[in-house]
Amino acid sequence: MSWWLLLVLAGLTYLSRAAGLALLPAPPERLERLLARIPAPLFAGFVALSLVDPDRSAASVPVLGATAGALLVAPSRSFPIVLAGGIAGYAVAAALT
Amino acid sequence: MLGDLSVKCVRWAERDIVLAAFSTGLAIAVYGVVFGVVAGPGWGSWRAIAASALVYSGSVQFAAAQLLAQGGGAGAIISAAAILNTRNVVLGAVLRSRVRTGLVRRAGIAFLTDDESFGLAMASSRTAVPVVLGAGVIFFVTWVGGTAIGAFAGSGSVLFADAATAMFPVLFVGLAAISVEDRAGLVRTVAAGLGTLALVYALPAVRDFVPVAVAIAVSLVGARR
After folding, report:
1. B200: nearest Cα among A42, A50, A64, A39
2. Vertex B49, ends B45 and B53: CA angle to 5°?
3. Is A97 part of the contact surface with chain B (CB cutoff 8 Å)?
4. Contact residues, B window 145-204, toward A, CB-based 8 Å cutoff
């Protein structure tokens, strides 16, 4: 890894983050309404991404247990409760495997 | 779960955001250690740490380390980074509505906007700027610090990687739960989760784009009404 390549990667990454947030013009109202609907499905997608490894194998049983535990208490909509559910799910799954 | 959707668009209080930021920061530190262990021997310890401080993107850094290890050239690494970074444009556009501040400040906090700080900023009852700054600084310090530990301490320091892996789905389950606004939103969210799961399994080569593509697709359904 050369220094110049490192700087190119840093520049590309920063520009991609600044583009939507600062550099591009503000989206029109209709697009803004659409963008407002994206977070929940996007977060669900990130959860799903965590459950399948790049080689298409499932995540470890404790990770699946943590996710299941968090999902069980997700209706509480409270992060401490979701975190506790995740820890409990992880511990139970780890103990069983 | 459907019965709880009478609660509309709740936001996490400051206490929950701080707890989420510190617990996620711990997980990010462990991932930083893993990156330090992976990249340190080939890149040199200080260059691996500089990568975490300057690039500050786990997906780009791990991809670069993997491509370099496989003999990939600069063109391949830059192309991979450009493709991986495209989703940041969408995250920035979504976050923009909660960042009511000037161009310079928006450009400044852009550096600290990753998946996790974006999620917390969207979940917070406060404006996004202090959340991105506060959580972003925690994540940045833990990521760079973890890389330093991994680069200098070596492979004996990755014992907790599996527990750290579990932190990310737990965080995003919590973020999804509070971001759902109504029954239609719940249906879109569940559909996005299941759709992403299927597509990530079917198309592993493009897995990093799948969550954004699926989220946009399900959000378009019924958007004209």
Report:
1. A50
2. 165
3. no
4. 162-163, 165-170, 172-181, 185, 188-197, 200-201, 204
- Show the tokens assigned to A29: 């109202």
> What letter does residue B101 receive in the DSSP assignment?
S
* Length of chain A (residues): 97
Whether the CB of B101 is below 8 Å from some CB of chain A: the reply is no
Token representation of residue B41: 């021997």
Residue spans per domain, chain B: 11-179, 180-225
Which candidate, B19, B52, B214, B206, places its Cα nearest to that of A9?
B52
Using DSSP, state whether B126 is helix, strand or coil.
coil
Residue type, B219: S
Name the β-bridge partners of A58: A52
What does the pLDDT look like over B141-157, one tens digit per residue?
999 999 999 998 876 55
With contact defined as beta carbons under 8 Å apart, do B173 and B24 qualify?
A: no
Taking the complete model, does pTM exceed 0.80, yes or no? no
Binary contact (B175, A39; C-beta < 8 A): yes
CB B155 within 8 A of CB B37: yes
Complex confidence, ipTM: 0.87
- B96: chain A residues, CB-CB within 8 Å: 20-21, 26-27
